[in-house]
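Appendix B. Chain record.
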Amino acid sequence: MRLPVMPPLLPMLAKAVPEIPPGMVYEPKWDGFRTIVFRDGDEVELGSRNTKPMTRYFPEVVEAVLREAPERVVLDGEVVVPAADGASLDFEALLQRIHPAESRVRLLARETPAVLVAFDLLALGDEDLTGLPFAERRARLEAAVGGGGPGVHVTRTTTDLAEAREWFERFEGAGLDGVVAKDPALPYRPDKRVMFKIKHERTADCVLAGYRTHKNDDRAVGSLLLGLYDDAGRLASVGVASSFPMARRRELFEELQPLVVPADDPDHPWTEAAQAAGTRTPREAETSRWAAGKDLSFTPLRPERVVEVRYDHMEGVRFRHVAQFVRWRPDRDPRSCTYAQLEVPVRYDLGDVLG
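Structure tokens predicted for this chain:
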């Protein structure tokens, strides 16, 4: 492979801001795997945000690039898995694609095929385009890849601030998590946070059902384990809250001791028996490929306390990122903390946000 921009390459990044800034080019914020695509004739390489190779996990994306992209090109984009209904993204299905068995990867490529959504053009033919303004790179991208295909798409953009604000509301949920704003004069700057992302912030009341101790102090809380009741009345693990000052972590440890129950308590909703019955528990992560080498044991608590947390996005049935503690909700009935409070209506079709 000989291209004017060669792998490995760290992508240009965005920093979070509270409001959509004026005078920018705006795009929907996709929720997938950030990917730099390198194609030189019959050779295709997919690089992750951390430059790790992803080519073997997405053979259908490789085939789509060979079929639909220029012969010599470098693209910046997002690999996503559309849900079967065509009106949302399936991040859980995307996570399953990172699998060590080739046979499993091939099966999932047929059952839950991924697509590439391109939003920047870094090289074309023998030209290195990274020094050009983004507005010019975007125009070249539309000319080279625009028109779409079953496997390679170009994301929609606008320069209208009012339209971007409308997108922020209308595309909420189901896999599009806000808006990205880019300076039209901006050259491509690898590994620099020079774009802007505006994400939804939501709150939820969750049941506290356990904690993990801090890695440096076994009498301090490292994270609070949060749950919500599903339609079957089971308390399902939805993620954690952390980011406390050390003094507060030690206070929480003492405060929660009266709620501690034995690790094998048969009445706790996250016992091994509960997991065997299909309840989503924190123990599921112990065998996860994403948690290799981490100690994910936890101290179970009677599920009597409710905590309000702030989160940005759901990843299937879990918070995508660590939630932020807001306050205790002593008057809230734990059984009323259900997934229903998180439901965000899907108000778009994926075709609405592809160029």
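Further analysis of this model is presented in Appendix C.
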